[in-house]
Design goal:
By secondary structure, the protein is an all-alpha fold. Helix content is 79%, strand content 0%. About 2% of the residues have low confidence.
Length: 656
């Protein structure tokens, strides 16, 4: 490496200069040049992490300092820099050695001075703590104590305070150091705040509060006083001293509104603390207490300012508190203010809906729900809020209101097709349709006697969703909605029980919706399964039908599903994952096809039987079922012959 090459060259020079040094030891120019070479050797060794060799060279360089007194400061600085660099890299043990060396070299040297020596000792104390704080804390304390005696700096006092808080149980020395830190003339407000927080972190609340009082007096008439007040408020709230915290906040608000305004940063911090405390009170169901903290926050905003979303959020929070306190008039005032500051926020309209619902104002509730769904902001939140609104109406025995409101939104969105707001209208429709589906599912479990009607309603929602997919603005939006509704269709199909007509329609809807997502093998498999299940459901519909026309229509639909299922199977077979030979789907399709064609009087039924017999894996039970269908479904000689043919093939495959 370059460092090794440089070290080799330096060594060569060393050998040459050694002779000159011995021959002309009293020549200052030679001594200084020789000293510089030694320093270069030290730097090269440290760069190669050869610290032992570097320390040996340092000792040789120190031997020259009694002659080269002007170089003492340079060598001390060099050792300090090595200690700092190694400290930053995590080599704390080596850092301790270098910093000790730096302090020893600089001791008594005017060029180094007390300030630099104190800096070295503070870093040495930190290195001891990082190396092994449990066993070296006393050495660290000694180092920082020596630093403070060399040059008393607030950083040294703060470090000493930290060591005493962590490792020394004695109060007297800690109290003295803590107070000395806060009274130091060069103390910055940042360091003062750090000192208070340090005491609080180590559960020395008495020290923290006494320190806050001392700082309050010190910074009484300065721009930094709000920062002290904020820290005091944090401590009061953290330790549950609510009444004292309120008194402090009221004093700060009074000062803010009477000529000593808080700066933007301090005001923002106050709002955060007040909202956090209000939130904790709200979660503890102390709504009156939460309202008081929110009111404090409101007092820090201008009375007649420009629209501000933060004020809107604050007014919504106040409205929620008023609702829990059943103060509906004041809640109405708060939500009106929220609407003035942020009319496009769906949360505002949701609270207005909730408030109207609690007061049985159905017309107002419907208007608020419509305003919520038309908001241009927060579409994801809007979806959840509309569902919550519908659920709330349901829980408050306003299920009709929930359904009518959501269906009205769907109708409004449909009427707006082709307009400039088509995208937002489409999203509004899908939001409402999702909520309607969820709401009707609760009807399905609570009103089993109305199952048929509810299933038909759900089917209508699915069809509307399918029709409106093209109105959505992006491919990802269309695929997202199609995926959600096809899952609903699939699950509803499985819940239909003996409602086979509706089951077939749900499976058909699932297939149609899946065609709107990006096609892959998993989608094709789902489509194939949908067609198979739809065919099975239509067979059951045909078997239970009373009218001849109904049977005919159902069996014709069976043949359509069978044909579509086979077409999808061929697509899968051409892909990377061919059909599994043990898949029962081909046999089931043949059974459905045979039964349908037999009833419809199609010719050449023998081809169905032949197709089954040619398969690599043919289940004898398939032939038995075909035989039973042929004999039961037709009393003609053709039916009996087909049954006999199927039975013979079944026996042959059974004996193989």
């Amino acid at each position: 490496t370059m460092a090794e090459t440089s070290l080799a060259l330096a060594s060569e020079c060393w050998e040459k200069l050694s002779g000159r040094f011995s021959a002309a030891a009293k020549d200052p120019a030679n001594l200084k040049a020789f000293f510089r070479v030694l320093c270069f050797r030290i730097e090269a060794a440290v760069g190669l992490e050869q610290h032992e060799a570097a320390f040996g060279t340092v000792q040789r360089a120190k031997e020259l300092l009694h002659v080269l007194e002007s170089e003492v400061g340079y060598l001390a600085m060099l050792c300090y820099n090595f200690g700092l660099d190694v400290f930053q890299k995590g080599g704390y043990q080596q850092s301790v050695a270098w910093l000790k060396e730096s302090y020893d070299i600089g001791r008594g040297c005017p060029d180094v001075g007390a300030v630099k020596q104190a800096r070295t000792l503070r870093l040495l104390a930190n290195a001891f703590l990082e190396w092994d704080g449990e066993s070296c804390w006393q050495k660290a304390l000694n180092a920082v104590g020596l630093a403070n005696s060399e040059h008393c700096h607030p950083a040294g006092l703060l470090l000493k305070t930290s060591i005493l808080l962590q490792h020394d149980s004695g109060n007297e020395r800690l109290n003295t150091t803590f107070e000395d830190t806060l009274r130091h003339p060069d103390l910055t407000v940042e360091m003062a705040l750090a000192t208070i927080r340090l005491a609080a972190q180590h559960s020395r609340t008495d020290l923290a509060f006494s320190g806050v009082q001392l700082l309050t007096k010190r910074y009484q008439n300065t721009p930094d006083l709000p920062r002290i007040s904020l820290l005091q408020l944090e401590l009061l709230l953290e330790h549950g001293q609510s009444s004292d915290a309120k008194e402090l906040v009221e004093d700060c608000i009074t000062a803010h509104n009477t000529g000593t305004p808080l700066d933007v940063k301090a005001r923002k911090h106050f709002h955060l603390l007040l909202w956090e405390q209000a939130g904790r009170s709200y979660e503890a169901l102390e709504h009156g207490e939460a309202l008081q903290w929110y009111n404090y926050s409101l007092s820090l905003f201008p009375a007649q300012g420009e629209p501000d979303k933060n004020i809107a959020k604050l007014q919504r929070n106040r409205c929620s508190c008023f609702i829990h306190l059943k103060e509906y008039d004041r809640a109405t005032e708060a939500i009106q203010e929220a609407r003035r500051h942020d009319p496009e926020c769906p949360h505002t309209h949701y609270l207005a809906f909730k408030l109207a619902l609690l007061q049985d104002q159905e017309e107002q509730a419907i208007q608020s729900l419509g305003a919520m769904s038309s908001c241009s902001e927060g579409s994801e939140d809007m979806t959840g809020l509309i569902c919550l609104a519908a659920q709330m109406a349901f829980e408050k025995s306003h299920r009709g209101l929930a359904v009518l409101s959501l269906e009205q939104l769907v109708g409004q969105g449909s009427s707006g097709r082709g307009s400039s707001g088509r995208s937002s209208s489409a999203q509004q429709v899908f939001t409402a349709l999702r909520c309607l589906v969820r709401l009707k599912l609760t009807f399905l479990s609570s009103e089993p006697t109305e199952k048929t009607g509810i299933l038909h309603t759900l089917l209508s929602y699915l069809r509307q969703a399918q029709e409106r997919l093209g109105d959505l603005p992006s491919v990802s939006a269309r695929e997202g909605e199609a995926t959600w509704f096809l899952r609903v269709a699939w699950n509803l199909a499985l819940q239909c029980g003996e409602h086979y007509h509706e089951m077939a329609q749900f499976f058909a809807a699932c297939h149609q919706l899946s065609s709107r997502v990006q096609s892959d093998s998993s989608v094709l498999l789902r489509q194939k399964t949908c067609q198979l299940m739809a065919a099975a459901a239509c067979v059951q519909v045909a078997r239970s039908a009373k009218q001849e026309g109904e049977k005919t229509s159902a069996f014709e639909t069976v043949l359509e599903h069978v044909s579509e299922c086979r077409a999808i199977g061929q697509q899968l077979g051409l892909g990377p994952a061919p059909l599994d030979p043990s898949d029962p789907t081909p046999s089931l399709l043949s059974l459905y096809e045979f039964e349908a064609r037999l009833f419809l009087g199609h010719p050449n039924l023998e081809t169905v039987i032949e197709d089954v017999s040619k398969r690599p894996v043919a289940d004898p039970k398939t032939f038995e079922t075909i035989a039973a269908l042929a004999i039961r479904g037709s009393s003609s000689l053709q039916g009996q012959a087909l049954g006999l043919r199927a039975l013979k093939l079944g026996i042959q495959h059974h004996l193989q």
